[in-house]
Amino acid sequence: WVRQGKESPNRFMPFIMMSGAADTDNVEKARDGGASEFLAKPFSAQTVCNRVLEVVDFPRQFVATREYFGPDRHRKSDPKCPHDRRRISEKDATIVYSSDRVRRPRNDGDVFLFRLPNKLKEKVGGLGMSPPGELPLRHLQAADQHLQRKGLEFHDWALGYLATLSSICERALQQSVDQRARHFKNINLLAHELRGQGGTFGYPIITNVGEMLYKMTQAPCPTEDRAVKVIKAHIDTMRSVFRDKITGDGGEIGIQLMQDLKRAIRKYTFDEPRAEAAAAEAKAEQKNRGVERIVAPPPRSGSDD
User: Which SS3 state, helix, strand or coil, does residue 8 take?
Assistant: First the structure.
């Protein structure tokens, strides 16, 4: 709407997309939708500040083609890119100096480049930010303190998410394998929230485990009982992080937790299926032997005379 809507108050407004879903597909969708920058969670107050100042001090020029309108999607030339995504020189484009009327080229291959005054920087300069391009330290400190307070709330609602995840696992086990897809979708959504928020509030291990859980529950994914056991192993690991208040990388304890989780994943992903297959094979062999005993003729007694 900001870029394309006729009611948009400013189609040239810088737009920073902030998301925990920093997969390549999502980043490209944000870029193609006209986002100026993409900031992946987790992030710090300083990271947000740096990215905001970047779009203020060094705004990307806007480009209009028949298929796209928004900030230049490439910072440098790349001959492998499609024509409408290649960085265009002034000699190959029409230069536009006004934002009053935004229109797109009529012909394929035509490009409009917008050369506009940096009004946002002028406004920021009028807010007493000194020196230009920097944010007063007190503002960063206040933002960090706010994140710390939110970190206490994160502990509580994250535990609530883990309780919900456990409940979903139990409901999934009560249904047949082919009816569990919606449960795994809900697990995936909660894992997305945990991976995006953990590192922001001082729990990077939660982000790492949440990322692992998010990837393994993306559709299509296995939904049999062993997959539920793997999910429970992720939940147990995250509960341990909060129970023992393991912040940062956790040191030796954090390393041990991740090793235990990977060991559980290997067990439920590889060892258990092999054990089940071996047990089934042994059972079948035992059954076959029983059949042989039934159909085999009884031994003859006495001589052949």
Answer: coil
pTM: 0.64
| Alpha-carbon 281 to chain mean position | 41
pLDDT tens digits, 17-27: 887 777 788 88
The predicted-structure confidence for 121-141, as pLDDT tens digits, reads as follows: 877 765 444 455 677 788 888
What is the spatial distance between Cα 68 and Cα 65, in angstroms, rounded to a whole number?
5
Q: Look-up: residue for tokens 């485990």?
A: 209
What one-character-per-residue DSSP string does 31-69 give? HHTT-SEEEESS--HHHHHHHHHHHHHSPPPEEE-SS-E
Written as six digits, the tokens of 48 are 């947000």
DSSP 141: H
Residue 156 to residue 139: CA distance in whole angstroms: 27
Q: Which value, to the nearest 10 degrees, does the dihedral of the CA atoms of residues 71, 75, 77, 82 take?
A: -40
Q: How many CB atoms lie within 10 A of CB 205?
A: 25
- Residue 135 near residue 102, CB atoms below 8 Å: no
The ranges assigned to domains in the chain are 16-125, 146-291
Q: What is the pLDDT of residues 215-258, one digit of tens each?
A: 999 988 899 999 999 999 999 999 999 999 898 888 999 999 99
